[in-house]
């Protein structure tokens, strides 16, 4: 039975103008999923709905406007009804604890893995495919989501990935740390960074620039009105933004000359030289060298913090973080934030933020961790001898795999011609001088989606499955997450000596990496013929 409060919210008796907190309660009931006050404030800040407050001390949203917005944006109620849409989860839940230690394009949410690995996730499920103590294999490990979920569910897991960075990220997530020692090491490195930045002109320059930028934006891009005027087409955003961008650029140029800031980037250099301002490059190199002084078992996780920091400090606009267009070395009108924004000149803010966030997430995971084995191997899934590779790292785990065998696979193969997995972390490969195996990627973006590319993709995925079969126990279960718009997986299954016994289709409503493009995916359940 619904509470009296929720019943009241759905009636017209409830006030039209609602605070974000009350609006969130109403929206949660109306949509049948959790909505927070921060979600409502986001809609206000970005002009999706109007702010009806008459002062600067409160925010008020019109319930009818909110209903119209949700009616337009929530296209199909059937998505919410699907048990594997996971529409009821907030972003904070789909990126919980270590799953958001570093951005990764194309990863699935942990709830999807939990659904198929854990019998208890859904009372409507009538069959259990895996049990505690089983060994799970991910032949395209990516960011290590399957490995992390397996640990929580008291299962062992092995990941395989051709990308050295992906392997480093996966292992950094599931490694057990002495968090006090890690925190002390972060503190040491941060002090080195602070001493360095305090001795340069950059810190004073940015303080001056931020003050002038804040005053300018308050005058010409007021928070509570500008974005709403743009949404209602009362302002020509493109022309107005262009005019104000040019106006502030004069102020910016004067400050650059006053503080003698070096804006050079090397357009013909590698990724690191092209996409980072000189002051940023110097700080990144400084921390990279300090990481090499840290205990060996902490270097991976410290490198992941620096990589996450570096990703946020590229010389690009806020709206182009995922699709780099050209290096930005001056202030610009930002369509994402609706104001004049600036490039970054120091990594300090992001290093501090991500270091604290990583420690917090590792502590959260530590409370959920089970005493099981997880490891990601940097090798080719089409031909790797899993037990031989494991013996070089963990003989006890290798023996367990030999005697118990792997219970099954949960993996998401690359999509055809969609992502270059090495290139999405090109900055990390340059910063840490990591080895690259781009030519061994299956279905990479640079190969396109031609007939030959599709045939090569089918062969590659089938070969990886065939290679894995020799390590699987009898009556294994294989789950592959794919967007099979070219209908390639029936052929893949046949070539791998398997058959598709079930197919689950789901809309992708919760993206781990922010992306406005909606799509659907399928989970193929394969077994031996």
TrEMBL record:
Superkingdom: Bacteria
MF GO annotations: methyltransferase activity
Keyword Methyltransferase: yes
Gene Ontology BP term (one): methylation
SUPFAM superfamilies assigned to the protein according to its UniProt record, in alphabetical order: S-adenosyl-L-methionine-dependent methyltransferases
DNA methylase N-4/N-6 domain segment(s): 61-163
Keywords assigned by UniProt, alphabetized: Methyltransferase, Transferase
Protein name, entry field: DNA methyltransferase
